[in-house]
Amino acid sequence: MNNSELSIEQATEALAAREPIFHRPVFGIFRADFEAMMAPEFWEIGASGRRYSRSFVLDTLEQRYSKPVAESFLLTDFACQELSSNLYLATYQLDQSGRLSQRSTIWRHSDGVWQIVFHQGTLIA
Known about the structure:
Layout: H1 8-18, H2 31-37, E1 38-45, E2 51-53, H3 54-64, E3 74-84, E4 87-96, E5 99-110, E6 113-123
Parallel strand pairs: 1-6
Antiparallel strand pairs: 1-2, 3-4, 4-5, 5-6
């Protein structure tokens, strides 16, 4: 294992601390923080089924965090799978005050930095 590669246990621990994405103030609440978290090619499929661009998500996050945010969520069934060298899939169920969704995020780890490549949320009926 070279210096930039992680064990699956290390990746799981690091990603569990970062999920749900954009809901962990310790990783930042400003646009520049979110830009640093996202790969340039980032995109998302929201729980609505709509595709969102990196710029749309950044604009939305900047607006959301322009005033104090109080959120309540419960994350369960977290799992992490290595897809290829330094590319990982994190999956989990998220309960946001009764709004249940299944989430998946593809993360890239490079030079000690985690970046989100793709995210999807699917509502659970």
